[in-house]
Amino acid sequence: MRRAIGTERQRQVNDTRVASNEGLDTAALLGRCAGGDAVAFRTLYEQQAPRLYGLALRMTRQPTLAADALHDAFVQVWQQAGRFDPARGSAEGWLIGLLRYRAIDILRHRRREQPGYEPPDDVADDAPDPFEQFRASSENAALSRCLATLDTVQQRIIHLAFVEGLSHAELAVRLASPLGTVKSWIRRALLGLKRCLEQ
Question: Which of 11, 58, 93, 94 sees the fewest Cβ atoms within 10 Å?
Protein backbone atom coordinates (compact mmCIF):
# COMPACT_ATOMS: atom_id res chain seq x y z
CA MET A 1 0.00 0.00 0.00
CA ARG A 2 2.77 2.42 0.97
CA ARG A 3 4.65 1.51 -2.20
CA ALA A 4 1.54 2.26 -4.30
CA ILE A 5 1.11 5.66 -2.59
CA GLY A 6 4.82 6.41 -3.04
CA THR A 7 4.64 5.44 -6.71
CA GLU A 8 1.58 7.64 -7.25
CA ARG A 9 3.29 10.60 -5.56
CA GLN A 10 6.39 10.14 -7.71
CA ARG A 11 4.21 10.01 -10.82
CA GLN A 12 2.53 13.28 -9.79
CA VAL A 13 5.93 14.90 -9.18
CA ASN A 14 7.16 13.71 -12.59
CA ASP A 15 3.99 14.98 -14.29
CA THR A 16 4.53 18.39 -12.64
CA ARG A 17 8.15 18.46 -13.82
CA VAL A 18 7.12 17.53 -17.36
CA ALA A 19 4.52 20.32 -17.37
CA SER A 20 7.11 22.82 -16.11
CA ASN A 21 9.56 21.72 -18.83
CA GLU A 22 7.10 21.95 -21.70
CA GLY A 23 7.33 25.73 -21.89
CA LEU A 24 11.13 25.70 -22.03
CA ASP A 25 13.05 26.18 -25.24
CA THR A 26 15.56 23.63 -26.48
CA ALA A 27 18.57 25.47 -25.04
CA ALA A 28 16.98 25.58 -21.57
CA LEU A 29 16.15 21.88 -21.74
CA LEU A 30 19.76 21.11 -22.68
CA GLY A 31 20.87 23.13 -19.69
CA ARG A 32 18.68 21.04 -17.42
CA CYS A 33 19.92 17.83 -19.07
CA ALA A 34 23.48 18.94 -18.30
CA GLY A 35 22.43 19.04 -14.65
CA GLY A 36 21.16 15.45 -14.83
CA ASP A 37 17.44 16.26 -15.10
CA ALA A 38 15.98 13.07 -16.60
CA VAL A 39 12.50 14.62 -16.92
CA ALA A 40 13.92 17.49 -19.00
CA PHE A 41 15.71 14.90 -21.12
CA ARG A 42 12.44 13.07 -21.72
CA THR A 43 10.75 16.36 -22.68
CA LEU A 44 13.61 17.20 -25.04
CA TYR A 45 13.35 13.76 -26.63
CA GLU A 46 9.59 14.04 -27.09
CA GLN A 47 9.93 17.48 -28.68
CA GLN A 48 12.90 16.82 -30.97
CA ALA A 49 12.98 13.08 -31.77
CA PRO A 50 10.32 13.05 -34.53
CA ARG A 51 12.06 15.78 -36.54
CA LEU A 52 15.54 14.35 -35.95
CA TYR A 53 14.37 10.87 -36.91
CA GLY A 54 13.05 12.29 -40.19
CA LEU A 55 16.45 13.83 -40.89
CA ALA A 56 18.23 10.57 -40.01
CA LEU A 57 15.88 8.62 -42.27
CA ARG A 58 16.57 11.00 -45.11
CA MET A 59 20.32 10.49 -44.65
CA THR A 60 20.39 6.72 -44.06
CA ARG A 61 17.32 5.74 -46.09
CA GLN A 62 16.71 2.81 -43.74
CA PRO A 63 14.40 2.97 -40.71
CA THR A 64 16.64 0.75 -38.56
CA LEU A 65 19.76 2.80 -39.31
CA ALA A 66 17.84 6.03 -38.69
CA ALA A 67 16.62 4.70 -35.33
CA ASP A 68 20.20 3.72 -34.43
CA ALA A 69 21.46 7.20 -35.33
CA LEU A 70 18.71 8.83 -33.27
CA HIS A 71 19.44 6.59 -30.28
CA ASP A 72 23.18 7.23 -30.45
CA ALA A 73 22.63 10.98 -30.80
CA PHE A 74 20.43 11.13 -27.70
CA VAL A 75 22.90 9.04 -25.69
CA GLN A 76 25.46 11.66 -26.63
CA VAL A 77 23.04 14.46 -25.68
CA TRP A 78 22.63 12.95 -22.21
CA GLN A 79 26.38 12.54 -21.78
CA GLN A 80 27.48 15.84 -23.31
CA ALA A 81 24.65 18.35 -22.90
CA GLY A 82 26.98 20.50 -20.82
CA ARG A 83 29.13 21.07 -23.91
CA PHE A 84 26.39 22.97 -25.70
CA ASP A 85 27.38 26.64 -25.97
CA PRO A 86 24.58 29.01 -27.06
CA ALA A 87 27.20 31.57 -28.06
CA ARG A 88 28.36 29.24 -30.84
CA GLY A 89 24.97 28.45 -32.37
CA SER A 90 21.40 27.34 -31.79
CA ALA A 91 20.43 24.35 -29.68
CA GLU A 92 18.56 22.87 -32.63
CA GLY A 93 21.64 23.21 -34.82
CA TRP A 94 23.72 21.50 -32.14
CA LEU A 95 21.28 18.57 -32.01
CA ILE A 96 21.24 18.30 -35.81
CA GLY A 97 25.04 18.26 -35.79
CA LEU A 98 25.13 15.39 -33.27
CA LEU A 99 22.58 13.43 -35.27
CA ARG A 100 24.38 14.06 -38.54
CA TYR A 101 27.68 12.77 -37.20
CA ARG A 102 26.04 9.68 -35.72
CA ALA A 103 24.29 8.94 -39.03
CA ILE A 104 27.54 9.44 -40.96
CA ASP A 105 29.38 7.10 -38.56
CA ILE A 106 26.72 4.43 -39.00
CA LEU A 107 26.81 4.73 -42.80
CA ARG A 108 30.62 4.57 -42.89
CA HIS A 109 30.62 1.55 -40.60
CA ARG A 110 28.07 -0.16 -42.83
CA ARG A 111 30.16 0.60 -45.93
CA ARG A 112 33.25 -0.89 -44.27
CA GLU A 113 31.34 -4.02 -43.25
CA GLN A 114 29.70 -4.42 -46.66
CA PRO A 115 31.92 -3.14 -49.50
CA GLY A 116 29.82 -1.67 -52.25
CA TYR A 117 26.93 -1.00 -49.86
CA GLU A 118 24.59 1.76 -50.99
CA PRO A 119 21.43 2.75 -49.11
CA PRO A 120 18.33 1.50 -50.96
CA ASP A 121 16.36 4.00 -53.00
CA ASP A 122 13.01 2.35 -52.34
CA VAL A 123 12.40 3.70 -48.83
CA ALA A 124 9.44 6.04 -48.93
CA ASP A 125 10.30 9.32 -47.26
CA ASP A 126 8.39 12.52 -47.74
CA ALA A 127 10.44 14.43 -45.16
CA PRO A 128 12.20 17.50 -46.48
CA ASP A 129 15.88 17.16 -47.24
CA PRO A 130 17.86 18.16 -44.11
CA PHE A 131 20.12 20.37 -46.22
CA GLU A 132 17.13 22.24 -47.63
CA GLN A 133 15.49 22.37 -44.21
CA PHE A 134 18.68 23.83 -42.75
CA ARG A 135 18.90 26.37 -45.57
CA ALA A 136 15.29 27.39 -45.06
CA SER A 137 15.69 27.94 -41.31
CA SER A 138 15.33 31.59 -40.32
CA GLU A 139 18.31 31.12 -38.01
CA ASN A 140 20.45 30.29 -40.99
CA ALA A 141 19.33 32.94 -43.45
CA ALA A 142 22.92 34.12 -43.95
CA LEU A 143 24.11 30.60 -44.72
CA SER A 144 21.22 30.10 -47.12
CA ARG A 145 22.08 33.35 -48.90
CA CYS A 146 25.74 32.36 -49.14
CA LEU A 147 25.01 28.83 -50.36
CA ALA A 148 23.00 30.39 -53.19
CA THR A 149 26.15 32.22 -54.33
CA LEU A 150 27.94 28.90 -54.98
CA ASP A 151 27.76 27.29 -58.39
CA THR A 152 25.77 24.08 -58.89
CA VAL A 153 28.81 21.79 -58.60
CA GLN A 154 29.89 23.42 -55.35
CA GLN A 155 26.40 23.19 -53.88
CA ARG A 156 26.22 19.52 -54.83
CA ILE A 157 29.59 18.68 -53.35
CA ILE A 158 28.73 20.48 -50.09
CA HIS A 159 25.48 18.49 -49.97
CA LEU A 160 27.20 15.16 -50.63
CA ALA A 161 29.98 15.82 -48.12
CA PHE A 162 28.06 17.43 -45.27
CA VAL A 163 24.57 15.97 -45.56
CA GLU A 164 25.11 12.53 -47.05
CA GLY A 165 28.44 12.22 -45.26
CA LEU A 166 30.55 10.94 -48.15
CA SER A 167 34.29 10.87 -47.58
CA HIS A 168 36.67 12.52 -50.06
CA ALA A 169 37.41 9.13 -51.63
CA GLU A 170 33.71 8.32 -51.92
CA LEU A 171 33.05 11.72 -53.48
CA ALA A 172 35.78 11.08 -56.06
CA VAL A 173 34.08 7.82 -57.05
CA ARG A 174 30.58 9.34 -57.05
CA LEU A 175 31.66 12.33 -59.15
CA ALA A 176 34.10 10.34 -61.32
CA SER A 177 36.80 12.90 -60.60
CA PRO A 178 40.36 12.71 -59.24
CA LEU A 179 40.69 12.87 -55.47
CA GLY A 180 42.81 16.03 -55.63
CA THR A 181 40.17 17.76 -57.73
CA VAL A 182 37.43 16.82 -55.27
CA LYS A 183 39.46 18.18 -52.33
CA SER A 184 40.07 21.37 -54.27
CA TRP A 185 36.34 21.77 -55.02
CA ILE A 186 35.46 21.34 -51.33
CA ARG A 187 38.17 23.80 -50.29
CA ARG A 188 36.95 26.41 -52.78
CA ALA A 189 33.30 25.93 -51.80
CA LEU A 190 34.06 26.30 -48.09
CA LEU A 191 36.28 29.31 -48.74
CA GLY A 192 33.47 30.92 -50.76
CA LEU A 193 31.03 30.32 -47.90
CA LYS A 194 33.49 31.72 -45.37
CA ARG A 195 34.09 34.90 -47.36
CA CYS A 196 30.39 35.44 -47.92
CA LEU A 197 29.53 34.88 -44.23
CA GLU A 198 32.22 37.32 -43.13
CA GLN A 199 30.75 40.16 -45.23
Answer: 11
